[in-house]
């Protein structure tokens, strides 16, 4: 038995609406964590019934954002993994790979304790934390990073600095494409400033080349 005419377009519209709502939520929640779902529906260009059809409440919307963030973080961690390269380059690559994801989902940090719960945010960030700690540990072992703090503690400190810089971007006090934060991360880990700039410039060029489309002309 054939499906009713219009069934596929309806599903396509539903997916489009859901994606638009999530994209708008990422943007608007970063500006105003107290935005209501009704206000979010208007900002998304959908009626209230459509939004609630996808997300019956604020908790459901935030959980969808958390799940989306978790998947994106995992993919970024995988892209930033080059285990054979020196630790300073590995940390620069890691920082540059994670920056766009952190920038995209920084509003979750503001909502962590009030709405999502610290445990859920920890689940989202865990793959990145494990990877960062492993890089720091290797860098300390190889003499690339200062050994004055245990690897997990130094990694947590670097994460805290990155989050602080993301918040400054959110407030408009700081502009960055990730390179400045990557340099600051290497310096904080113990890499000399000149070397940190050189490493980040080299790795940033590699990351940009890897992110470029294979056939930008479309021919």
Which bin fits the share of residues in helices?
over 70%
**Which parts are unreliable, with pLDDT below 50 for 5 consecutive residues or more?**
1-10, 212-219
The count of β-strands is 0
Strand content: under 5%
Q: Can you write the helix and strand succession as a string?
A: HHHHHHHHHH
Rounded to the nearest angstrom, the distance between the terminal CA atoms is 41 Å
What is the count of DSSP helices, taking H or I runs of 4+ residues?
10
SSE-based structural type: mainly alpha
Average predicted confidence as pLDDT = 83
Q: Report Rg.
A: 20 Å
Give me the oligomer status. Answer: single chain
Coarse shape: elongated
Q: Major β-sheet, in short? A: none
Describe this structure in words.
With 219 residues, the protein is mainly α. The protein contains 10 helices and no strands. It has helices at 7-31, 37-44, 48-54, 58-79, 87-105, 107-116, 118-141, 151-171, 179-189, 193-211. The longest helix is centred in the first third of the chain and has 25 residues, at 7-31. The radius of gyration is 20 Å and the shape is elongated.
């Amino acid at each position: 038995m054939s499906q009713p005419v219009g069934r596929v377009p309806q599903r396509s519209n539903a997916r489009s609406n859901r994606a638009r709502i999530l994209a708008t939520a990422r943007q608007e929640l970063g500006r105003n964590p107290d935005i209501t779902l009704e206000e979010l529906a208007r900002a998304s260009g959908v009626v209230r019934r459509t939004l609630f059809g996808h997300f019956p409440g604020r908790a459901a919307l935030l959980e969808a954002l958390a799940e989306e963030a978790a998947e994106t973080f995992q993919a970024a961690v995988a892209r930033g993994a080059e285990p054979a390269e020196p630790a300073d380059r590995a940390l620069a690559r890691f920082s540059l790979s994670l920056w766009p994801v952190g920038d995209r989902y920084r509003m979750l940090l503001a909502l962590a304790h009030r709405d999502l719960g610290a445990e859920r945010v920890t689940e989202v960030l865990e793959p990145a934390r494990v990877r960062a700690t492993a890089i720091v540990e290797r860098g300390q072992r190889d003499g690339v990073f200062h050994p004055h703090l245990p690897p997990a503690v130094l990694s947590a400190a670097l994460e805290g600095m990155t989050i602080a810089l993301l918040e400054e971007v959110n407030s408009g006090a700081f502009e960055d494409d990730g390179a400045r934060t990557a340099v600051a991360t290497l310096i904080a880990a113990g890499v000399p400033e000149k070397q940190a700039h050189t490493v980040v410039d080299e790795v940033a060029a590699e990351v940009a080349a890897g992110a470029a489309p294979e056939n930008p002309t479309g021919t």
